[in-house]
Amino acid sequence: MIQQMTDNPDIFICPACGGSIKTAGNKIECLQCHNQYQIEDGIPLLFESNESDGSERNVTALIKSFYEETPFPNYENLENVGDLIQKAKRGVFARLLNDQIPFNIRILEVGCGTGQMSNFFGASQRYVFGTDICLNSLKLAQQFKKRNNLQRVGFYQMNLFRPIFRDESFSLVICNGVLHHTSDPFAGFQSIARFVKKGGHILIGLYNKYGRCSNDLRRFLFKISNNRFKFLDSRLRDKTINDIRKLTWFRDQYKNPHESKHTFGEVLRWFEETGFTFVSSIPRTKAFETFSENEKLFNPASCGSRFDLFITQARLLLALNNEGGFFIMIGRKKF
Ligand SMILES: C[S@@+](CC[C@H](N)C(=O)[O-])C[C@H]1O[C@@H](n2cnc3c(N)ncnc32)[C@H](O)[C@@H]1O
What we know:
The chain is of the alpha/beta class and 335 residues long. The protein has 2 domains: 3-207, Rossmann fold (3-Layer(aba) Sandwich), CATH 3.40.50; 213-254, no CATH class. Helix content is 35%, strand content 19%. The chain contains 12 helices and 11 strands. The strands form 2 sheets. The chain has a 7-stranded mixed sheet with strand order 7-6-5-8-9-11-10, with helices on both faces. The longest helix is centred in the last third of the chain and has 14 residues, at 306-319. It binds S-adenosylmethionine. Residues 60, 63, 67, 72-73, 111-113, 132-134, 137, 159-161, 176-178, 181-182, 252 line the site of S-adenosylmethionine. S-adenosylmethionine binds next to α2.
């Protein structure tokens, strides 16, 4: 029995036909199409494929097998909730989110990987549903949850293109570093935007077209040198990071079989076309405004002009940073 499914029977649907589902013992059955789904190690296996296995590249299958081999991020040295909290405190983003997300709300994390963020929020009074296509990642997430007896979080195998939740079931949907590993990021965004309640928020993290240039250059140099110039990435030369974490990072950043890059303007258009308003971003989109340690992530800010977006992305290009050229945007669903 999956407690979270029993407690929230109305929000789940069949990923194949959208019908209502029921759980009985270790099986889940659709009341409409009668498809049956298994539960393994407490994880409902609700994955449905979205791409044919024909001659075109099946990105979902490719990415799934990539992450099955190297689940991301890795749990090295993270045994208990205290360790997770320490890790979150070291990064401004997780700390700000934790300080500013209300308690007792329902959160969906799409593409949760090994579920560190889901477990972190589940440990701090939020009801979290962590989903991913990769079962090996979900198993690590589930092991951490069980070891720490985290009752408010649950993990589900789900393809974001084949939803297992009804529309408008969540106050916050988080999708960090996922859509750029899909065949159609905008279609993916539309698929997950439906889960957000009116007035609720969506948080999207993507590779930036300009910020990612330095990564692309390093990837090229690694390729032509047979990986001899790894020292060009600060994480890979950091002596405090162990070899397993370095390998996970290296594969995720430089050997990923599929990634796309996006701009602030593009995500603003996604928001516009899907009924969301811009709330905030990291980095800030207004030129020359810097992101502060006390940023109010859910207070609506101005997204600035085209000139602002140009300057901000030019700064990302010139920063030559090692964080993968990432940007985050938060939107609010209109009533
Ligand atoms: C780079 S990892 C990010 C993990 C986590 N969000 C984080 O920030 O650490 C990308 C994750 O997206 C998942 N993913 C890719 N395509 C997906 C899809 N179609 N549906 C659900 N998850 C997907 C992968 O399995 C992988 O775990």
